[in-house]
Amino acid sequence: MHKTIIIGTGPAGLTAAIYLARANLNPLVIEGPEPGGQLTTTTEVENFPGFPEGIMGPELMDNMRKQAERFGAEFRSGWVNSVDMSQRPFKLSVEGMGELTAETLIISTGASAKYLGIPGEKDNVGRGVSTCATCDGFFFRGKKIIVVGGGDSAMEEANFLTRFASEVVLVHRREELRASKIMQDRARNNPKISWSLNRTPLEVESGPLGVTGMKVRNNETGEVETIATDGLFVAIGHTPNTKFLGGQLETDETGYLIVKPGSTETNVPGVFACGDVQDNKYRQAISAAGTGCMAALDCERFLENAESH
Ligand code: NAP
C-alpha cells in the first residue's frame, strides 16, 4: 500500500511530488498519456519565475520530474481507469498495473484545451496554432491573428492578443456571442478587433513557415472563404480531466473539482485536488505549482493526524 498516490504530472502533480518526496513519504506518481501536461505542448515559457532567459516548456517539466525523482518519488506510466473512494485505503484500477491502494490521493490531472477537430489544426500546433494566448501571444508581435470562440475566453484572449498583434479577427460559428456583456463590450470597443461572425471553421491552411489562413463557411450564404492569418488561437473552452473519478468528487457546473476555499481538500477526506483540474480561472503553470505545494502540505498533515488517532 502507498501512503500517497499522485495522479497527473503537470506542474501541480510534480510540485506535490517534490514536496512529498522531501517529506520522506515516497509518493507514487502516475503519468498519463501526456507526461508533463499542457506545458509540453508549448515552446518557450517566459513567465515562470526563476528563468530570466525563459525556458522551453518540455525542459521545465523534465527538470521538475528529475527534482522529484532525486528525492525518491517513484514514477509509473499508466491510465487510471477508476478509483474507489468509498473507503480508505482507496483502490485504484490502473491499466497494466492492476489494483493499487493508497491512504491518500492527490488528483492533478489537469484540463485539456478543446480543439476544433478540423484538418490542419493539430499538425500546426506550435506552428501558429495555439490554445493559450498568455503563453504564445508574445510570438505574434505585429502579426495578424484569428481567435475562434464566442465565450468569455475568446473575448479575453482576443483583447489580450491586441497587445501584440496588428489585427485580431474574432471568428465565431453563430451571430450571437455567449460571452458576458462586459467582456463583449470590451472586445467590441477594441479598434484592433474585427468580427467574422456566423462562420464555421473548416480547415487550417499552412505553408513551410506555418499557418497562413483558415477556411470558413459563411453560415448565412453557404459560401466558403479563406481568412488569411499568421496565427490561430482556439478559445472554445477546456475540459477538466475527471471522467475516471466517476462522479465521486463534487464538481461545479462546468465539471471542475470543488475544493474547500483556501485548501486543496475535496469532499472526500484524504483526497486532495490541485492544478487546473480544480482551477477554471487562473490556469497558469505557476499557480498550478502553488496549489501542488498546498496539496502536499495538506496531505502530510492529514497523514500525521490519521497516524496519531
Ligand atoms: P464557453 O463559455 O463554453 O464558450 C465556448 C465557446 O466556444 C462558445 O461560444 C462555443 O460556441 C464555442 N465553441 C465550442 N465548441 C466549438 C466548436 N467545435 N467549433 C466552434 N466553436 C465552438 O467557454 P469559455 O469561453 O472558455 O468559458 C468557460 C467559463 O469560464 C465560462 O463560465 C466563462 O464565463 C468563464 N470565463 C470567465 C472569464 C472572465 O470573466 N474573465 C474569462 C474566461 C472564462 P457556441 O456559443 O455556439 O456554443
Automatic annotation (TrEMBL):
It comes from the Bacteria. Binds 1 FAD per subunit. It catalyses: [thioredoxin]-dithiol + NADP(+) = [thioredoxin]-disulfide + NADPH + H(+). It holds the Pfam family Pyr_redox_2. It is an enzyme of class 1 (oxidoreductase). InterPro entries: FAD/NAD-bd_sf, FAD/NAD-binding_dom, Ferredoxin-NADP_redctase_2, Pyr_nucl-diS_OxRdtase_2_AS, Thioredox_Rdtase. Its cofactor is FAD. Keywords: Disulfide bond, FAD, Flavoprotein, NADP, Oxidoreductase, Redox-active center. The keyword NADP applies. NCBIfam families: TRX_reduct (TIGR01292). Homodimer. This is Thioredoxin reductase. It comes from Cohnella phaseoli.
